[in-house]
Amino acid sequence: MNAKHLLLSTALVSVFGTSSAFAQQSELQSQSQAESGSQAGTTGVEEIIVTAQRIGENLQDVPIAVTALSAAALEARGLTNNQSLEGAIPSLTMTKSAQSNQPYLRGVGSNGAAGVDEMSVATYLDGFYIASPLSNQYNFNNLARIEVLKGPQGTLFGRNATGGVIQLITKEPTQERQAQFDIGYGNYQTIDVNGYVSGGLAPGLAVDLAVQHHNQLEGYGVNLGTGTDVYLNQNSSVRSKWVYTGSSTKITLLLNYDRLSSRLILQNTPEADAAFGTTPLGRFNGLEGVDPQNKARRMFAGLRVEQDLGFANLISASMVAKYNQRYGRQRDPGYPLGEAIDEAMQYSQEFLLQGKNKSGIQWQAGAYFFDYSSDIQLILKGSQFAPLNPEISATGKTSSSAIFAQVTYEIVPSLKITGGLRYTWDKYETRKAKTFLPSLNFTATSPDRVTKTDNPTWRLALDYQIGPDIMAYVSYNRGIKSGGYSIYAPNTPKFDPEKLDAYEVGLKTQLFDNAVRFNVAGFYYDYANLQVNTIIQGGLSSQILNAASARIYGIDADFEVVPFRNFTLSGGFGILDAKYRDFPGAPSTSPNGVAVPGGINAAGNYLVNAPKFSASLSGTYVIPSSLGDFRVSGTVSHKGRSFATADNLLAFPSYTLVSALLGWTNTAGAVGIDLWASNLTDERYYIQKTATGTGWSQLDGPPRTYGARLKAKF
To answer: Most buried of the four, 68, 151, 364, 643, by CB within 10 Å?
Structure first.
C-alpha cells in the first residue's frame, strides 16, 4: 500500500503546485443541454454538460475522471468511429476481433468476444447498456458528444463496468426543422454518405432520422489465393429518435439498425514467418483459398419514460436488442477453416428515482433487470483440424438483477461527500452444448452448467471546491465483472467474478478567465481474479481463466487551452504501470504455435493492452473572412509499446499517428467542404495480435487515407 499512498499524494501535490425543475433534473433533458455547444464562445474553452452521474452536471463539477468530446471536437479530430477514439482518450486502447472492438481503459478490459461474454468497459447509447461486443463498433454521424468515464462505475452503471464506461449520446430532435447532409470520397474508392433530419410532427412531439453509409470498394491488400481485394469495410445504419415532451412527462423512443461487413485476413507475424520459414506476403496481403467474410447486424429499440413527481423524477427505461454476427477465415489454400456464428438477444428494464437536490442533498435510487442469451456455433475445418473437423454449438444465458442508490451531501459549504451502493445478483448458464464430428458421424454432449453469484459494488468520494475554478476530489470504488463459463469450452470449470478496488485522487481546474481547462487524476488499482480469454486445445476453442491478481497505478490528464480567439489546443496523456502480481498457469505459446506445458507464472509481467505511455495533441484554428470560415485542424497521437499476451512475448510496437483537416464553411454556415487525411505518415501499426496453436498472427491498422467531404445544412 506504500506505493499507492505515495502515488496519490505525489499526484495531488504536484498538480496543486501548477496552478424548469423537471428539465434540469431529467437525465435526457440534461443531455440536450450539452448539445447547445460552447457557452464561452470562441474566446474560451466550452462548458461541457455530462451525465457521468446520471444527471446533467458541468464536467468540472463531477468528481470522476471523465474525458468528454463534443460533436465539433470529434469532427475536428477526424474521429469517425469507436476504433479511432483511442487516439484522443488518454489510457484507452482499442483492439479488434472480427466485428468487435475491445476497449481497455487504464489496462483494464476484456478480450472475450463470444456468446454472452461482456466487455469490462461498458458501452451505453443514450443511457441504454449495449451488452454485445458489437456495441463497440459504432460509426459517428448523429452524436451530440461522447463521454469516457475512467475507473469502476459499478454503483450507477452496474456490473461489467470494471474498467469504465463509454457513453454515446445522440442529438435530441428539435421542433424546428433542420437537416444536415454530407457526402465524401476518399482513396481506396471509399464512399461515405451521411444524413440527419429533425423536426416537429405535432406540439410537443419531435422526431429525427439519421442515416449513414460507408462503402470501401478497393481493399488495402489482396488475397493472393483468389485475387480478391481484402482489408475493406462496408457499414450502413439507420437511427431514429422520437421525443414527446409534456408539462411533467417526457417519453423517448430510440430505434437503431446497423449492418456491418468486412473482409479481413489475419497474417503471420514476422516472428511466425521466421519460425515457419515462410515468406512475408506484404503489409496487407494474404494467401487463402477462399475469401474471408465477417458480417454482423445489430437492432435495438429503447423506450424511456420520465415523470415529474414533484419531489423527484421517476424514469423507466426498457430495451430489447438482437445481435447477429458471422465471422471466419481460411489459412490453407483450398481448405476452408469454417466459421463462427453468434445470435444473441438482450432485454433490460431499469427504474430510476432522482431527487430534486433540496437541502444540499442530491440522491437517486433504482433497480435494474437484465437478460442476455446467445446461441453460438463454431465450425472448424482445414488441415490443422483434419480429419475430425469438429463443430461446436451451445447456448449461453446471463440473467441479472440489481438495486442501487447514491447520495451526495454538502457537509459544509464547498465540501461534499458521495456514497453509493449497488447489490447485484447474477445467474450464468450454458445449455445444449455439444460437439459434432462429421467424419465419424458422432455427437458428444456436455452437461448443462449453472452458476450464481451475488456481489456488492460501491462508491465513496469527497470533493472540495477550493475556489470558483478549482475542485479536488478523492474516491474509493469497487467494481465487479461477473463470472460464468467459457461457452466454446463446454467441459471446463467456471471462472469467478473479477474484482477491482480503485483509489483515485484528482484535480479539475478552469483558469485564466476560461482560457485553460486542465484535469488530472492519479489512481491505484487492486485487481483480483482478473479474467483472461485464452486459446486452448491447439486452437480448437477458447477459455476464460482467472489471473490470480494484479496491481495498476498511474496518472492521466486532459487539457484544453484557448490562447487567443478562434485557436484551440487540446489533448491529454496517460502514464501507466500495470503488472500481474501472480498468474500461475498463464498460457505461453511460441511463434510457431508450440505451447509451454502447464503455462508459466506471469508474475511481474505487464498486463495486456496496457502501454506505459499514451498521449495526444490536437489543434484547431478558425480563420473568419468575408468568404466564410476557414478551419485548419491537426492531431498527433502516440501509443507506447504494449503486449498482446500475458507472457509478454507477443508485443504491439509503439507508434505515432498524424491526421489533418482543412475546411471551409460559408458565412451562413449552410455549405462547406473538408479535405482530410488520416495516418499522414503511413505509420505501420496493429489493431490485433493473437497467439494460438497455429502460430502468432496479426491484423494491421489502416494505412494513409485521405479524401474530400461536401457538407450542407438547412
So the answer is: 151
Distance CA(97)–CA(148), nearest Å, equals 21
| β-sheet bridge partners, residue 202 | 205
In order, the DSSP letters of 312-323 are: EEEEEEEEEEEE
Which helix (H) or strand (E) covers residue 382, if one does? none
Cα-to-chain-centroid distance, residue 53: 18
- Asked if 272 and 335 touch (Cβ cutoff 8 Å), the reply is no
Query: DSSP string spanning 106-142?
Result: TTEE----STT---SEEEEETTEEE-SGGGG--B-SS
Please tell me the distance from the alpha carbon of residue 376 to that of residue 641, in angstroms, as a whole number: 34
| Cα three-residue angle 280-282-286, rounded to 5 degrees | 85
DSSP 358: -
SS3 275: helix
Assess whether the previous peptide bond of 173 is cis (omega < 30° from 0): no
pLDDT value at residue 134:
66
Question: What does the angle CA 556 – CA 560 – CA 565 come to, to the nearest 5 degrees?
Answer: 170
Burial degree of 530 (CB within 10 A; 0-12, 13-18, 19+): buried
How many residues are given for the chain?
Answer: 714
As given in the structure block, the three cell numbers for residue 15 are: 498538480
Three-state SS annotation for 174-239: CCCCEEEEEEEEECCCEEEEEEEEEEEEECCEEEEEEEEEEEECCCCEEECCCCEEECEEEEEEEE
Q: Count of CB atoms within 10 A of residue 281's CB?
A: 17
CB contact at 8 A, 136 and 123? yes
Element (H, E) at 102: strand 100-105
Alpha helix segments (H runs only) across 385-447? none
The per-residue pLDDT for 36 is: 36
Beta strands in 494-540 (DSSP E): 498-511, 516-536
pLDDT of residue 388: 75
User: What CATH number belongs to 2-361+381-398+410-713?
Assistant: 2.40.170.20
What is the pLDDT, as a whole number, of residue 387?
A: 74
Q: Which residues make beta-bridge pairs with 62?
A: none
Domain boundaries, the chain: 2-361+381-398+410-713
Half-sphere exposure of 472 (CA within 13 A, CB side): 13
pTM confidence score: 0.90
Averaged over successive runs of 10 residues, the pLDDT of the chain (714 residues) comes to 39 36 39 37 80 93 94 80 80 76 89 77 92 71 90 90 92 94 96 96 95 95 91 92 96 94 88 92 87 86 96 96 77 55 93 87 96 87 71 91 96 96 95 87 90 95 96 97 84 89 97 94 95 66 81 96 94 96 90 88 94 95 95 95 94 95 94 96 93 87 96 93
- Which residues face 250 on adjacent strands? 245, 306
Here the cell at position 382 is 482445414
For 216-244, letters b (16+ CB in 10 Å) and e give beebbbbbbbbebbbbbbbbbbbbbbbbb
Which pLDDT score is estimated for 265?
84
d(Cα 317, Cα 172) in Å, to the nearest integer?
A: 17
Q: Which cell numbers hold the place of 399?
A: 440473467
